Structure prediction request, 144 residues.
Amino acid sequence: MKEIDKQITSVFKSIELVLGISLFCFALWKSYTISEFMLYSKSADGVVVDFVESTDGDGDAAYYPVIEFEASDQLIYQFEASILVYEDDGEGQYYSVRYLITDPSNAKVNGFWRIWGYTIALFVIALVIILHYLFAKKSMFEER
Prediction:
């Protein structure tokens, strides 16, 4: 019975390692794409011109602001921001935005955590999983 427990533990530890490495690789890829976006993008000032109504997980009304900005080609672009707000009274509010020079319609609200937060969270989760695997592996060797 003890041998079966060791085999099951070994399988779960292998899955944990694969998951950790996969998340780490995905985070590396995300950081590369964000770096490319930052390299080939410009910033501009945008203003909230409208809101798109949605619902949050609890069924409450929530809104995504529609932000308008002028790109370097002197054209006006709009995009739906990924910021969830609970009141639609922020029309006229200003945001800094970043947009691709070659595709200004691909814009994001500018800010370190808004752009990098998801990727940093992925790195942290991946490192926690990998470190957990390594420390568990070390303690397994010490038991033998």
Summary: The helical segments are 2-39, 112-143. The CA atoms of residues 35 and 121 lie 16 Å apart. The mean pLDDT is 89. The longest strand covers residues 41-55.
